[in-house]
Amino acid sequence: MTTVLVDHRVADYEAWRPEFDRANEAEWTSGVRSYTVLRGQDDPNRLVVLNTLDSREEAEALANNPALREAMGRAGVDASSVQIEYFDDVTSGTG
Fold first, then answer.
1. Topology, domain 2-88
2. Residue 27 gets which letter from DSSP?
3. pLDDT per residue over 69-88, tens digit each?
4. Domain ranges of the chain
5. pLDDT tens across 24-65, in order?
6. What is the Cα–Cα distance from 87 to 44, expressed in whole angstroms?
């Protein structure tokens, strides 16, 4: 499993959220096994999205998909703020 971390700023969270929800139902996101959206407490327009996919290759394909860039543009993402990183799942648990 690979987790993609997408850290970015949006113009307005309330405008971003419906586009995110539409994208999650699109065919091009079908490889996403799970996702988490984190919203900044001090800056509510700063978001971190964690997507879990089966492999790095699938994660890179999603990150490089033109449909993702188009959706991000419609959602008001500040393209200069986007940072994408890939992580291997090592362990998880509950407190």
1. Alpha-Beta Plaits (3.30.70)
2. G
3. 999 999 999 999 999 999 99
4. 2-88
5. 999 988 899 999 999 999 999 999 999 999 999 999 999 999
6. 24
